[in-house]
């Protein structure tokens, strides 16, 4: 159950390559009526963490990437970033996503 919470709901997991949490995948999956989730894990390089909070039109994500590591954020389905995300360096990151509403 714990693995599901931090890997799926919160969205914190190591990338397949390179090993040892040198690349961290952040893939939050807000679902149901949950307004927020957070998770942290001790890696060989330090603490990696994610916290997201959701409202109807916004998803605020706070990431911490340990020194010597990098991260990638994959926005959840239905959410878009106003700026390209790319590879994130070590340190704290605050990212704001907006709800994607297809134009009719």
Automatic annotation (TrEMBL):
<dbReference type="Pfam" id="PF17390">
    <property type="entry name" value="Bac_rhamnosid_C"/>
</dbReference>
<feature type="domain" description="Alpha-L-rhamnosidase C-terminal">
    <location>
        <begin position="18"/>
        <end position="73"/>
    </location>
</feature>
<protein>
    <submittedName>
        <fullName>Alpha-L-rhamnosidase C-terminal domain-containing protein</fullName>
    </submittedName>
</protein>
<dbReference type="InterPro" id="IPR035398">
    <property type="entry name" value="Bac_rhamnosid_C"/>
</dbReference>
<dbReference type="InterPro" id="IPR008928">
    <property type="entry name" value="6-hairpin_glycosidase_sf"/>
</dbReference>
<dbReference type="InterPro" id="IPR016007">
    <property type="entry name" value="Alpha_rhamnosid"/>
</dbReference>
């Amino acid at each position: 159950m714990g693995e599901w919470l931090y890997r799926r709901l919160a969205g914190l997991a190591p990338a397949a390559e390179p090993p040892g949490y040198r690349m961290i995948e952040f893939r939050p999956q807000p679902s149901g009526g949950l307004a927020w989730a957070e998770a942290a894990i001790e890696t060989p390089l330090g603490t990696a963490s994610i916290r997201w909070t959701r409202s109807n039109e916004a998803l605020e994500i706070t990431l911490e990437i340990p020194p010597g590591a990098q991260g990638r954020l994959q926005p959840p389905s239905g959410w878009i970033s106003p700026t390209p995300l790319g590879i994130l360096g070590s340190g704290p990151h605050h990212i704001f996503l907006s709800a994607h509403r297809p134009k009719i």
